[in-house]
Design brief:
The protein is of the alpha/beta class and 208 residues long. It is built from 6 helices and 7 strands. 38% of the residues lie in helices and 17% in strands. Helix 1 (16-30) crosses helix 6 (165-190) and helix 2 crosses helix 3.
């Protein structure tokens, strides 16, 4: 069975971000896709220090904070929805650190899979955070899934989000769209369509 991993980057396990993710998860399940919501918790997650220790390993050498657990779960997932609250018009600090490290150390577990992000805010800053999180997927050979509107929900608490009818509908549409594309990919595989053949990666800078 195909599976989507939903990552809750909020410090609140069952708050606004979770409420939005759950709405998408329910729609995925209704369409025959297995889901798992992972809460990254409240313990500090350190940022990537660029040490290169993960190169060739596929995991972060500083993995005691849960980063490697997400990388491991990602290996068995076919799609992802990354959710975060909006803090100062950006993703939450722990979520940013997590995304930096899982995509740097575990990039192969995300390539050629489906991805989407959703953000939760009281009022403003949602589009800036949304843009920030989408960049991880567009640099990682992922296919980004959209919805009928930007994937955002509004409210100060879960009870508020439950009243955001458009936001919740956007989450449901996202879930349906992701389920549909996953099934299209499966049909393509059955018909003999393989993932693109990758070139050797070229790395240059602006000096040479």
């Amino acid at each position: 069975m195909m599976k989507v991993l939903l990552v809750n980057g909020s410090p609140h396990e069952k708050g606004c971000t979770y409420t939005g993710l759950l709405e998408a998860a329910k729609e995925l399940e209704r369409n025959g896709i297995e889901t798992e919501i992972v809460h990254i918790g409240t313990k500090p997650i350190g940022g990537c220090i660029g040490c290169g220790g993960c190169v060739g390993k596929g995991y972060c050498v500083f993995g005691a904070d849960g980063v490697n657990q997400v990388i491991e779960k990602a290996e068995g997932a076919d799609g992802f929805i990354f959710g975060s609250p909006v803090h100062y018009a950006a993703a939450a600090g722990n979520m940013t650190s997590l995304m930096d490290r899982i995509f740097y150390a575990g990039k192969k577990n995300f390539a050629y899979k489906l991805g989407a992000v959703m953000v939760s805010c009281r009022r403003g800053g949602a589009t800036a955070a949304f843009d920030q999180l989408n960049k991880y997927m567009t640099i990682s050979n992922m296919l980004v899934v959209g919805s009928q509107y930007w994937n955002m929900i509004h409210g100060s608490k879960a009870e508020d989000v439950a009243k955001d009818e458009e936001g919740l509908q956007t989450m449901r549409t996202l879930g349906r769209n992701m389920a549909w594309i996953l099934k299209c990919i499966e049909a393509g595989k059955a018909a003999g369509v393989s993932i693109p053949e990758a070139e050797a990666v070229l790395r240059t800078n602006f000096i040479r």
